[in-house]
Design brief:
Blueprint: H1 2-9, E1 18-23, E2 28-33, H2 34-63, H3 66-83, H4 88-92, H5 104-109, H6 111-116, H7 123-154
Antiparallel strand pairs: 1-2
Length: 155
């Protein structure tokens, strides 16, 4: 809404704005246009939202109390996303963690991969990891109630 209001009052800017990008695999840097980065960034952001909602739903189903669920969500999801660049061990395995790709624009332009010194933190890995993690969480969410009923019947 803010973007719409300011765009009506003033020009939104050029979609041909150059953004400095890195490619760690080829050790090259180059400029990409903003309009070329916008589509992949929005797609990764949508996948992030799907992953976050699935993870939050599963966490609330597991813990059942609001305060505990909130604490676990903040620690695991948001803490995990912000911890990755600072922990040396995590930076080597960052391309397998869905929380790494929460910074979608930095993932698409390559600056996150450059910061982590991990050439596999790319847009394509983000698509693979976020899609597979979201599907796993959705399947766990769908099977949680029948699984819980099955465990209750065994007791």
């Amino acid at each position: 809404m803010t973007f719409t209001i300011t765009s009506l009052l003033a020009h939104p800017g050029s979609w041909n704005y150059p953004i400095y990008s890195w490619n760690l695999a080829s050790q090259a840097s180059h400029y990409l246009l903003l309009k070329n980065l916008l589509g992949p960034t929005i797609l990764l952001f949508i996948l992030e939202l799907i992953f976050l909602t699935s993870a939050i739903l599963l966490i609330t189903k597991i813990f059942r109390t609001l305060l505990t669920s909130l604490l676990v969500v903040l620690l695991v999801l948001l803490g995990g996303a912000n911890l990755t660049p600072f922990v040396e061990f995590l930076s080597h395995w960052a391309h397998y963690l869905p929380t790494t790709f929460f910074f979608s624009f930095r993932t698409v332009n390559g600056s996150l991969g450059f910061q982590l010194q991990n050439s596999q933190v790319t847009y394509h890995w983000g698509l693979i990891v976020l899609t597979s993690a979201s599907l796993i969480l959705i399947l766990l969410n769908l099977s949680w109630t029948p699984l819980q009923n099955f465990i209750q019947q065994k007791k």
